[in-house]
Amino acid sequence: MAAAVYEIRILLSGYLGSNNEADTAVRLAAHLAYALHNEALTILEDNGDFDLGAALAKIKTAEKIVGLHYSNTFDTLGMSDKT
To answer: Is residue 82 part of a domain?
Structure first.
């Protein structure tokens, strides 16, 4: 999964930023992949533990850029930074 996140980040890199004409869902996907690519690399290279709290904080930052609130989905799945 980490390799897929990293590849998606590369494929969607042209849709980063808040000032482009891409569909909001595409922009959110680009920002989520970009936000999580360092964690994906950490997992791929076996250089440390995955930090869920840090990952969720990056997702929330990406949400602010595109004006959506996707991270609430993780709370309903029981995957919050408070667990």
So the answer is: no
Q: Are 64 and 43 in contact (CB under 8 A)?
A: no
Number of domains in the chain: 1
pLDDT tens figures, 39-58: 777 777 877 677 777 777 87
Say if residue 77 is exposed, middle or buried (CB neighbours under 10 Å; 0-12, 13-18, 19+). Answer: exposed
Tokens standing for 26? 């595409």
Buried b (16+ CB within 10 A) or exposed e, 52-61: eeebbebbee
Q: Distance (Å, rounded) from C-alpha 49 to C-alpha 62? A: 22
Alpha-carbon distance of 67 to 83, in angstroms, equals 26
On whether residue 47 sits in a domain, the answer given is yes
Contact residues for 59 (Cβ-Cβ < 8 A; gap 6+): 32, 35, 36, 70, 71, 74
